[in-house]
Amino acid sequence: MGLGLSNRRHRVGVIAAIILIALPFLDFGFDWLAYPLHIMVLILIWSFAYTSWSLMGRFGLVSLGHGAFLGMGAYGTALLWNYAGLSPWLGVPASLCLVALVAIVIGYPCFRFRIVGYYFALVTLALSEIVRQIIMATRDYTGGSLGFTPHPLPSDASLPDQIVALQFPHREVFYFIALVTWAVGLYIWYRVERSMDRYALETIAEDEDAAASVGVWVTREKLKITVLSAVMTAFAGALFAQYQMFIAPDTVSGIFISLQIVFAVVAGGVFVALGPTVGAVITIVLSETLRIAVGVKMVGLDTTLYGVMLVLFIIFLPQGILGGILEWISRRTRAVTSQAGKAAAAD
């Protein structure tokens, strides 16, 4: 039974991979996939960001500061391109190094002095809002609330220039970049899942003193996963900026973005690899539907819904949509196996 279920999952995974790779080629020259492909790119980029948060969240490290890391990755890369002429190939690593440093500066004292639970959440919440306020205050460089646009290449730019600037006229190129990024995010999730660090972090989440007593270096383990999560989130921000070619404080930083990240992961399933992806589908489809339906008449409606739905999911479906479905399938499988065993024993 278990082998059959594993084979079915493998076949489903292969079919899904084939569909995702073939998707950009299915418009048959009519370009009817332009908008759906745009939505898919957004889902893949945000899925990577949500997966980054889940690396911490699944071990009880509830951060409300990932909006800060996302914003730093987006603005850092764009500012270095506009004002220093630094290619994203260099600007992204520089931004990621800055984010890693900030994560260490914030994380080390918190973990060293055991600032945990809602105290840690409040510290990260403050970081998220501080970054947004810095972006707003330096409006002469960042554009403030009006947003910021990276310098675009000329329409006749050569392919080497497009590669250097990471700006492509065809959406399909970014689709494959986002697809690879999403796959790398899942790979990292599985690597953490199958590493010894997972057991150390689970022990820490249960009891830090017990973990320390058996030789787990608590501060180091928590700092490692925090830096990894922060850097991945910043990379998602940089990729989002390069794709959209426009960023604003309210779209890539601040408490509202952090709330969106937490809601998406909880809604999809924080303990399931594809849970953040399901959450990304929910948030992107919801925001696009509201944008089309109400436009700018009710600004912030999507964030309000995220907050309400987050409370409902925590109360009624704490394992998330995908986590709940997988649990139901597991229960059904165990029930069928038990009934088969009883029938065999009766015969």
Poorly predicted ranges (pLDDT <50, ≥5 residues)? none
CATH architecture verdict: Orthogonal Bundle
Largest β sheet strand count, sense and barrel closure? none
Element-by-element helix/strand order: HHHHHHHHHHHHHHHH
Taken from the alpha-carbon principal axes, the silhouette is globular
Strand content: under 5%
How many separate helices? 16
C-alpha Rg (nearest Å): 22 Å
Q: How many angstroms separate the termini? A: 20 Å
* Structural domains: how many: 1
What's the level 1 CATH class?
Answer: Mainly Alpha
Number of strand segments: 0
- What do we call the CATH topology? ABC transporter involved in vitamin B12 uptake, BtuC
Average pLDDT for all residues: 87
What proportion of the residues is helical, as a percent range?
over 70%
Helix-strand makeup class: mainly alpha
Please, could you describe this protein's structure?
This protein has 16 helices and no strands. By secondary structure, the chain is an all-alpha fold. It has one domain: ABC transporter involved in vitamin B12 uptake, BtuC, CATH 1.10.3470. The protein is globular, with a radius of gyration of 22 Å.
Task: Give a brief rundown of this model.
With 347 residues, the protein is mainly α. It has 16 helices and no strands.
Question: What labels would you give this structure?
Answer:
mainly alpha, 16 helices, 347 residues, ABC transporter involved in vitamin B12 uptake, BtuC
Topology:
Layout: H1 2-22, H2 34-57, H3 66-84, H4 88-112, H5 117-137, H6 139-142, H7 159-165, H8 171-193, H9 196-206, H10 208-213, H11 218-244, H12 249-252, H13 255-268, H14 275-294, H15 301-316, H16 320-346
Helix pairs in contact: 2-8, 2-11, 2-13, 2-14, 3-4, 3-5, 3-11, 4-11, 13-14, 13-15, 13-16
